[in-house]
Specification:
heterodimer, A: 190 residues, mainly alpha, 8 helices, B: 277 residues, alpha+beta, 3-methyladenine DNA Glycosylase II, Chain A, domain 3, Alpha-Beta Plaits, two-stranded antiparallel sheet, two-stranded antiparallel ribbon, elongated
């Protein structure tokens, strides 16, 4: 039951994009089409789950025993970068179209603060291995949810009569704000 | 052990393990790309404009590497790029690398052609043409001179001269055809170099009427038609037309044209094609 709460907490209550405001760059950048948003979300989720496993091992078997807390950030970034490379190679081989559609945002997962943020939070909360994995999965699913919601709205927006000065990114920012407001309604759920 | 040493070792170990994993993954997920295509892509302009008919420079490079696309298929890169592509493919040089250049087929600017009125609407030929048929200009075939073609040119290869006519800067023109599509009166055509003889008039009006509105329009006197040694010029519907495929650039028509409608313009030298064995 506790795992379920961690999951729901990461997806809805403390959604990484809409509540914690992490990973906003791909949130605005890759949310024009549902399909690419889903691909981006899946790639990020994968990176998050694998990173969760590796960073947990590193944190409790390398950093803690040897008393190296200051190495936390560089070593986590190293892991994330390697995982992103892996995903990039994998996508390039299996789905060139998605690879092209994601473009620069795929390598940019490396510097996606949502990924680093969640691994640091997982360590801070002293989650167990399984809990960390579920937390990573939740963070990824929450990220995907935010991206797909945004992409769906933006697709519909193409047919809407948006006032000229707001068309494009302007209205997207306003919608992001409203979405975030809506998600604040989940506060206190868990 | 000092902290520095421990951190160095642990960081190094983590890095090496991840690197080893990535090396393995890169072998496993290696995507085969054609090295020839990569090389060709390097020399292309990289604008992904699609003027070659392929979806971007990469697609053209792949097609050229497969021999499906001609080496001179990139109209933007022109002769320079064609040479480089030919070099990469081991083809010596290129025949028929006829660069296409836009030609404005109207000489009736403010000094030559009559105006019924001054146009004070938006500076867009299409607006003038679609609202009043461009009737502020006496000649209903000639250039309206509002610069829509100049605005359409993505390469800054055109400008309006003080006489109100568009001028093509030949060195910059890539033959993309944007101006041709922009002109509502179909005055601009793409002509392959080295064709230098151009009949700069599109008027189908009777000779008498042309004379009434323009001092440089074609009056269909047929002198050029008679003078041409290779029958490249035919007069039809009150307008002399030139067949660029037949013209040999002898320029005899230029000399006899009483209205100075026919012009000769020096083209750029052209590469000759020879396939290496």
């Amino acid at each position: 039951m506790e795992l379920f709460f961690i999951f729901i907490g990461a997806v809805l209550v403390n959604n990484f994009v809409l509540v914690r405001f992490l990973g906003l760059c791909p949130f605005m950048g890759v949310s024009k089409q549902t399909e690419t948003a889903l691909g981006m979300g899946a790639a990020t989720t994968f990176v998050m789950v694998v990173t969760a496993a590796i960073t947990w091992l590193l944190q409790w078997f390398v950093l803690e025993p040897f008393n190296l807390p200051f190495l936390q950030t560089p070593i986590f970034i190293l892991v994330i970068a390697a995982m992103v490379q892996l995903v990039e190679m994998f996508l390039r081989k299996t789905s060139p179209n998605l690879y092209r559609a994601l473009g620069i945002f795929l390598p940019l997962i490396t510097t996606n603060c949502a990924v680093l943020g969640f691994s640091l939070i997982a360590v801070q909360s002293a989650y167990s291995f399984i809990q960390s994995l579920i937390f990573g999965l939740g963070a990824g699913v929450g990220f995907t949810l935010a991206l797909v919601l945004m992409a769906g709205i933006r697709e519909e927006l193409k047919f809407a009569d948006v006032p000229k000065p707001l068309a494009g990114t302007g209205i997207a920012f306003i919608i992001a704000g409203l979405l975030s407001l809506a998600f604040s309604g989940f506060a206190g759920l868990v | 052990m000092s902290t520095t040493l421990v951190s160095l070792i642990s960081m190094g170990m983590v890095g090496s393990v991840l690197a080893a994993g990535l090396v393995y993954a890169s072998k496993k997920f290696a995507v085969e790309t054609d090295p020839t295509a990569d090389e060709i892509e390097e020399v292309l302009p990289g604008a992904n404009c699609g003027a070659c008919g392929y979806a971007g420079c990469r697609a053209f490079a792949e097609a050229a590497a497969d021999g499906k696309a001609p080496v001179d298929g990139c109209p933007v890169g022109g002769v320079t790029v064609a040479k480089l592509v030919a070099q990469i493919l081991g083809v010596e040089a290129v025949e028929g690398t006829h660069r296409k250049v836009a030609q404005v087929l109207c000489k009736g600017g403010r000094a030559e052609a009559k105006l019924h009125a001054e146009w004070i609407g938006p500076r867009d030929c299409r607006v003038a043409q679609n609202t009043q048929n461009g009737s502020f200009k006496a000649c209903s075939y000639g250039c309206l001179g509002l610069g829509t073609c100049v605005a359409a040119c993505p390469f800054d290869a055109m400008y309006m001269d003080e006489n109100g006519l568009p001028v093509v800067i030949e060195e910059k023109c890539t033959g993309c055809g944007m101006c041709v599509r922009a002109c509502p009166r179909d005055i601009i055509v793409l002509a392959e170099e080295p064709q230098g003889v151009h009949i700069r008039c599109r008027s189908l009006a009777l000779g008498k009427d042309v004379r009434g509105v323009c001092s440089v329009g074609c009056i269909a006197c047929r002198r050029c038609e008679k003078e041409c040694p290779v029958n490249a010029i035919t007069v039809e519907d009150n307008l002399a037309r030139i067949d660029y495929d037949k013209c040999i650039n002898c320029r005899r028509c230029v000399a006899v044209c009483p209205m100075n409608t026919i012009e000769y313009q020096e083209g750029k030298p052209v590469l000759k094609k020879k396939r290496a064995s």
